[in-house]
Here is the input.
Amino acid sequence: MKKNIRIFSFLFLLATMSLNAQTDFKFGFQASPSFSWMSSSDNKINSSGTNLGMKFGLVAEYYFAPNYGVTSGIGFAFNQGGTLLHDLGGDFWKESDLSNTDFHDLPAGVKMKYNLQYIEIPIAMKMRTSEFGYLRYFMELPILTIGILTQARGNIDGQGRMAEKEDIKKDVTPLNLSIGFGGGVEYTINENTSLVGGIYYQNGFLDMTSDKAVKIDADLNEIAEKSKGVAKNITFKIGVIF
Here is the structure.
């Protein structure tokens, strides 16, 4: 998998550098901190914490008009996810091979933290202003992002149960789709190079959590846990465009 990622990234780099020879194409990279959290459609499962993560990646822009274009690329998103507080107990990572069988029978009030890594492929429309001195302002809307899960680790905390870095990939959906928007500013260093800074919001719309989980109600009955868990994040984009 890592070898395939390196090959794909190298080919993407060569392609975008060759296209960059044309004035309509630009190439760059980003290194951006992000804050992510999760929410659930079940009112007995509540958001209870954020993850501080990082996003690194390559960026390609194609302008079909001086101030209108399409932007895409490939990126690597680390430590995404968040923490969910379960008001009811149960077996929430049922498919995963956890380090202790007791983690398949959790009490009420337990917190489940998701630490996820993705390969991300975004595509967006980009609109920008003309230059004001050295500055341009821009908006990207909408941004559709495909996320391919590469790693999933989970922590359990509460009611006498503690675990860290459990492999929970079997209980996380391998593909995530999200839609979002963002905007910011470009600062021109020279004719071909600009620094980019902006803020972006991303909202997942696919269920990330396993539908094979089981919860226990007040009468000790087992109930299939079919809630929809989604991830959201805010990213502070920092990049360079050539």
